[in-house]
Amino acid sequence: YSGGNFQASADRQGFTTSLVTDQNSFGEPLIAELYGTYQGIDTLHVFPRLPSSVDGTGHIDMWFYLVDEER
Description:
The chain is of the alpha+beta class.
């Protein structure tokens, strides 16, 4: 996965965009399992990518930032 397309919270949630499924032959359930195994993530949230006219990278770090466990 692209490093800019993954953010993890202290409460073991992971956040990414659908770029992770677009760039892999794995389905979302297997990708979530791999994040659990190798990143310690219990819940993976996969958001749709923004249009390329807004964000050409498809990375979540272009528009998403974790402040704390609730924001």
